Amino acid sequence: MHSTMCSIWSRKMKLQVSGKTGAIQSSMDFPQFRRTALTTVAAVLVLPFQVQAQSTLAEVESFFDAAQIVAGPALVDCTLSGGTETTCFSITVIAEPSSYTPGPWCPTNITDGPDKSGIWLEDGKVHVADGAFMQNLSTFYDDDKWQLSDPSTGKINVTDSLEACLAAARPDVDPAYTNHCVQCLVEYMPEGATQTYVIPVEPQPLMRGRSIGFAGAGIARNGVSLAAAAPTDAILGAYTIAPFDVCGGHVNPHAGYHYHAVTDCLTTLSDMSDHGGQIGIAMDGYKIFAQNMTDGSTPAKLDRCNGHETGDLGYHYHAGDPGSNAILGCMSAEYGCASDDPTAVCDATARPPRP
């Protein structure tokens, strides 16, 4: 490049000697030359990133081949949670799996078994939330105020309509739905409802892990949201319980179907690294792998975010134990955005409006 620049200089420079002063003058347009040179250098610097971004885009499209993609993936400008302005990929999907039908969640009678019930996460364990479990909640939580079923008929109180779902599946539960099993159905979502995820092409690491934001932990390979921890304290505080299906998911009337636990329902990308296979991409751009290694062992030296760095994969996450109610512990890099508005511009520093 040095020789090229010298050639440009020699071709454009014309020296003139002033008879009075002997000063050397140049007819070269220095500002124009500087702009041309800087543009050339900038193009050379940007080119590798563009190549990397396009490669990432192709990898993302291949990874989400099991998702119901509506638009994308495409490269967009974005502002991450820490204020970094960078390039992200945007992908819009229908927020439900295509390989299975979500549910069931709430049993309707204390005689209902696991085939008509979901699961509940407590104390690091996965519990079958069947009829007997609902009947014995007062013992399970050592609190006599729990009474979800009718003692004479065994019928369990369940939110069985959209109106009931909207009244109970919120932080300030309507008192009319105290002592209810709360479930919202996929069909309650508007037809064609989508979620758009905007995730950095190149992760921007943080000095210290940050709490998972409103966008959640990431997106699974099938296009379903990998959510932050379920607000179980608020749920239980209203004497309600909102089970997950056996795949670790349930429906929020605003965000649709999403996971709070990763079970064996999720298919992984073919595992070429013995790390259990990739099941998703985190909102900060790092890859998420299965809970355990391919041989069933626990990944070594995970940090508090559930991530570690290896020579073959670089930094990546492993999904948390299903009973932990934490797919990831935190975010190791600045995260992007998730929205039900596919036209929204991602600024993860802004707090999203309440539904």
If you had to describe this structure to a student in words, what would you say it looks like?
Pfam families: YHYH. InterPro entries: YHYH_dom (IPR025924). The chain is α+β, with helices and mostly antiparallel strands. It has one domain (50-346). Helices cover 19% and strands 25% of the residues. The protein contains six helices and 20 strands. It has helices at residues 2-12, 30-63, 131-135, 137-140, 162-168, 232-237; strands at 15-17, 24-26, 69-79, 85-94, 118-122, 125-129, 180-181, 194-200, 205-210, 218-220, 225-226, 240-241, 249-252, 256-259, 278-282, 287-289, 307-310, 314-318, 331-333, 337-339. The strands form six sheets. The protein has an eight-stranded mixed sheet, with no helix packed on it. Strands 3-4-8-20 form a four-stranded antiparallel sheet, covered by helices on one side. Strands 1-2 form a two-stranded antiparallel ribbon. A hairpin with a 3-residue loop joins strand 13 and strand 14. It is globular and about 70 Å long. Mean pLDDT is 87; it is low at 1-28 and 33-45.
Task: Chart the SSEs and their pairings.
Blueprint: H1 2-12, E1 15-17, E2 24-26, H2 30-63, E3 69-79, E4 85-94, E5 118-122, E6 125-129, H3 131-135, H4 137-140, H5 162-168, E7 180-181, E8 194-200, E9 205-210, E10 218-220, E11 225-226, H6 232-237, E12 240-241, E13 249-252, E14 256-259, E15 278-282, E16 287-289, E17 307-310, E18 314-318, E19 331-333, E20 337-339
Parallel strand pairs: 7-12, 11-14, 16-18
Antiparallel strand pairs: 1-2, 3-4, 4-8, 5-6, 8-20, 9-19, 10-11, 10-15, 13-14, 15-16, 17-18
